[in-house]
Amino acid sequence: MVQIPSVKSFMASRKSRKSPASVLVVGGGPAGLTAAYELVKRGSKAVVLEQSGQVGGIARTEVYKGYRFDIGGHRFFTKVDEVNQLWQEVMGNRFIKVPRLSRIYYRGKFFSYPLQVFDTLANLGVKESLHILMSYVKIKVRPLDQEESLQDWVTNRFGRRLFQTFFKTYTEKVWGIPCDKIQADWAAQRIQGLSLRTAVMNALFQVNNTKTLIKEFDYPVLGPGEMWDRFQEAIELRGGEVHLDSSVVKLHRQGQRITHAIVRQGDKLVEMPTEQIISSMPVTALIRQLEPAAPIEVQTAAKALKYRDFLIVPIVINRDDLFPDNWIYIHSPEVKVGRIQNFKNWSAAMVPEAGKTCLGMEYFCSQGDELWEMSNEDLLELAKREIEALGLAKASEVEDGTVIRQPKAYPVYDRDYRENLEVIQHYLETFENLQTVGRNGMHRYNNQDHSMLTAVLAVQNLYGGNHDLWSVNTERSYHENFTREEWASRQQEEAEELALLVSEDWGSEDLAEDPEAAVIPSALSRPTAYPATKSYAPLAR
Question: Which spans in 92-195 are helix H?
Fold first, then answer.
């Protein structure tokens, strides 16, 4: 059994510490760069170690023959004042306002999102709409007693029919596992605030009180990577260091203190002292690299955590205007593509040639499976076939393309993840000079603003703060920090309001999906310790 000192005493000792002269930051994605920037502003030395050759992590912007594209879409919208201030401080006037438009492709039709009542009714038909409404009423009368899985969570809020129509196929395409094997708190964390009532009120009366139903968002002119390039420049201007192509291979410790890191830079191994360390590398890698090794229980828990991988096939199409959406969710099971980005509709500067369009065909997969192992040429051919099968463009109009693979893009919330993560969390909390931040640093499927917030609070801890980073969740990042009792009360109130809504014949349904929600994920913040594989393979014409 792992012997864990009191977390309370550990936090008290942290608060009494003097400010650090130097901090080692592992990972150059949103969380790591935010931590380094906050450190250098306070006068501390920050040394950032980024394994790949580019900062930004999964929030970077790639460039291929002048075409710029995201590894998934990144909207810049937040209610976290600290994060918004950082964005404005670093970007200045380099943000543009982008109208938010996304639709769902299902059964050969495009469904608007957020919900538009008549559009949804027309696409589904009166008969199917009535089936969905009756299914919803049934679950409100006799809800499931326990919400253990995502399937339970969604069904309790939207009814079984709507779950099967708009949630099941897409979710299982994205995650590769059945919905009844995915933990309910994944949905609760990622789709908070959305409900049938919310969507109907928004559709009929333009009421909009949730984080997901926004009409426009900020976006850097040259893509999100422009922001992280500016963060790197600001860090270096203030005396910090950002080392690319630098991977941590060992973290040596004495008891519960990290003493130094062994870093691979090219063909050299470099020893770096660690007065304090902030890590956004995956916790699985962090545990594996400890020397002496972590207790066997911790190692076993780390090995049990799972990830979902991701690849994107950007294709250049010889047409000026294909569709107005920023992105389209592909629910149709007939094709493998999960989502399609239209980069021109994020920023015109992403596409260098007039009369051309660049689409990002996004495929969710796992290392070693059929999709992941396909050659670049075969993936490009698959993308061509599927874009034509969807009726968006002809395969013959695709002129060029490339492939990028992104390992460990999404932490998976399977049935055992919570128990395994708690073992790791309790062990890591005992370290005197180590804090983990960000998506993979905490194995949480967070937005980039939430990842940045954990980094801000981690730095504050080094200057006398007393923040428990593991208690910071999506609720906090949107100024909705409820206790368990408050959250249960809110859910009960929502259920009562929804029941009233149905009794008053407000018979329309919500697609209840968000571009950064668990059901429809986008790449957010940084899986820092695992670089993408670039595969620039032009199409044969």
Answer: 117-124, 126-141, 150-158, 160-162, 168-175, 184-190
Q: Specify burial of residue 12 (Cβ count, 10 A radius: 0-12, 13-18, 19+).
A: exposed
Residue 235 is inside which H or E element, if any? helix 225-237
Helix (H, G, I), strand (E, B) or coil at 207: coil
CA 82, CA 223: separation in Å to the nearest integer? 21
Q: How far apart are CA 95 and CA 79, in angstroms?
A: 17
Helix, strand, coil proportions of the chain in percent (round to 5)?
40, 25, 35
Higher-pLDDT residue of 190 and 510 is 190
Is the bond into 521 cis (omega within 30 degrees of 0)?
Answer: no
Query: What amino acid is encoded at 307 in this protein?
Result: Y
Return d(Cα 151, Cα 294) in angstroms, integer: 35
Q: Convert the pLDDT of each residue in 286-330 to its tens digit.
A: 999 999 999 999 999 999 999 999 999 999 999 999 999 999 999
Per-residue pLDDT reduced to its tens digit, 246-279: 999 999 999 999 999 999 999 999 999 999 999 9
For 155, residues 6+ apart whose C-beta sits below 8 A from its C-beta are 139, 144, 163
Cα–Cα dist 80/446, whole Å: 14
User: By percentage, how much of the chain surpasses pLDDT 90?
Assistant: 57
| Cβ proximity of 126 and 242 under 8 Å | no
Residue 255 burial by Cβ neighbours in a 10 Å radius (0-12, 13-18, 19+): exposed
CA–CA distances in Å: residue 207 to residues 124, 198, 501: 24, 8, 15
Residue 273 vs residues 52, 263, 427, 433: alpha-carbon distances, Å: 21, 11, 22, 12
- Is residue 95 packed enough to be buried (19+ CB in 10 Å), middle (13-18) or exposed (0-12)? middle
Q: Provide the 8-state DSSP code for 165.
A: I
Q: What is the pTM of this model?
A: 0.80
DSSP letter for 294, please. P
Per the DSSP assignment, residues forming a β-bridge with 277 are 24, 434
Q: How many other CB atoms are found less than 10 A from the CB of residue 6?
A: 10
Q: Whole-angstrom Cα distance, residue 190 to residue 455?
A: 20
DSSP-derived pairing of the beta strands 357-365 and 307-317: antiparallel
Residue found under tokens 């004042």:
81
Burial class (CB in 10 A: 0-12, 13-18, 19+), 514: buried
Nearest residue to 170 via CA among 315, 328, 62? 328
Kindly indicate the confidence band of residue 527, based on its pLDDT and cuts at 50, 70 and 90.
very low
